[in-house]
């Protein structure tokens, strides 16, 4: 989509005001990013979820800044006309501001991202403000924060009681005040996500947070059921089952190789007679 104009944070805020939802999808490599852009996606997130769905880890915690730079660079080559956000991985933005800015610099300069995403609330607001002051857009992320899964007791729904709902509201407003251009709400009850979306002037992007956020994000491999085995998730809708198609396609290839039905005549190249003569002649000469 060479004629596509990428979004920016001003346009996104205007879309919230006008009630136009944002579509966001994760991508981790060149072909998936290119396909997402061709399909018309608004934003691409190079998520540290690549640890689970691409690198084979049980959590996102082992993902490094080098991993994120590598995959972000691949995605930005594939989707040159789409706004791309890169995740700051575990423990790369909880130390000194200088250390955090070094990681941000790598994702922006080497990865060529347009923005970074950080998980957390009040505890990261000073870092968010410093990164924004350095000229880098920041997308916040509250609710279920996978990098803190060991602290929050697993993958649990957030905002189920009044105290937790107020905590999420306070965190959203604090991130807005710190300069975040938007906030991902993950596994948050629909009522709380709706209240937060109405209370802040920046877009909210939900994943498992109901129908009333300003946008939605899904993981590429969930949307396309591209995994084996695939684990069902209540908040995910499968739009295509390519995992099964891939498995069936490879199985058919294996069968045809075993049966010698692939390659057939349509897949081979033939040589001129003079070439064949020279080959056979060389073989005969070598045999004497």
TrEMBL record:
Mg(2+) binds at residues 48, 87, 119. GO terms for molecular function: 3-methyl-2-oxobutanoate hydroxymethyltransferase activity; magnesium ion binding; methyltransferase activity. Binds 1 Mg(2+) ion per subunit. GO terms for cellular component: cytoplasm. One of its GO terms (biological process) is methylation. The active site is at 186 (proton acceptor). It catalyses: (6R)-5,10-methylene-5,6,7,8-tetrahydrofolate + 3-methyl-2-oxobutanoate + H2O = 2-dehydropantoate + (6S)-5,6,7,8-tetrahydrofolate. 3-methyl-2-oxobutanoate binds at residues 48-49, 87, 117. Catalyzes the reversible reaction in which hydroxymethyl group from 5,10-methylenetetrahydrofolate is transferred onto alpha-ketoisovalerate to form ketopantoate. This is 3-methyl-2-oxobutanoate hydroxymethyltransferase.
